[in-house]
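Lecture notes, unit on protein representations.

Consider one protein chain, 315 amino acids long.
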Amino acid sequence: MVYLGKGKTFHPLCYRGDENGDSPEAPTIDVPPKRPTLPPQRGLKTFTVDWGELKQNLLAAFRDDFRAFPQHASEVKSHLVHPNEGWQGYGGEDCKRWLESGYNSDAIRNLGDFTPPLRKKRRIRFVEEGDEFHYDLAASGADNFMSEWTQRERIPGMKINIALGFSADVSETVLNRYAKWVCKAIYSVIDIGIDPEISIHYTADRMVEGEEGPHDTRIRVKKEREVMDFQSFSAMLSPAQFRAYMFCAMYLHCESRGRKITGGHGTSSRFFTQWGVDWDKEQEMLYIRCNYGGYGFSEETMESQLRAALKEMAS
């Protein structure tokens, strides 16, 4: 057997990694996985920062201005301004350039190519009373000689909460595939007429010194009635998405509570156990979930779950 930690043991002939061989992927099995629960809400301590505000605080750090991070200046320097490029896969200049100019990723190109599209096409139907009269049908004695266009399904406004919490050894390949799918999903939701609020979040235990229970850090990249601009927050699709930008949002979370972050920055392993999409009717929120270990990402499965969630939302 190949042992990969608690709950991750595979037969050697079944074990395989991703394209880069960095993140192992569980073998396909016939038994459907247990549906994980949504992130906890009772006792959850939540902090939200708008992307524009976070971005300005991060750019200020490159000017040696750490007023937003009075207790975490050293952490911001080590993860954002002067990161270990060999370990992280990016440097401080990259972090700064992506904040200023955006991250040129194929994740935000050709977004309309989500196949098949989620939007249902309108079609014409013939009825007794409608919008348009068809003389040829009436002359031939047809009962339904009027026509009208079917209406697109209307779905109420909502929030989209995108999970971002990965182990340090998850490869860039998995992160890029996930980011690209998320962009397509957001585009498709907006394309069917929904104007959502969109946040990227990280839920963790043992994140804040001296406080128990889970803490949730949310970066709001779009408010309702704002035009969606993927380029504006494209830095959150870069290799620095988690260990630079999200970490700094977590430092702001701790600063808002007047406390320091723990040495390990907390753990999200029990919250992000599987890839998936869920609709929470009570909160009117669409959750896009990630797998902490990066195993087994499937665009087909995610798209299927997105369709099911939208159907549940419209019911």
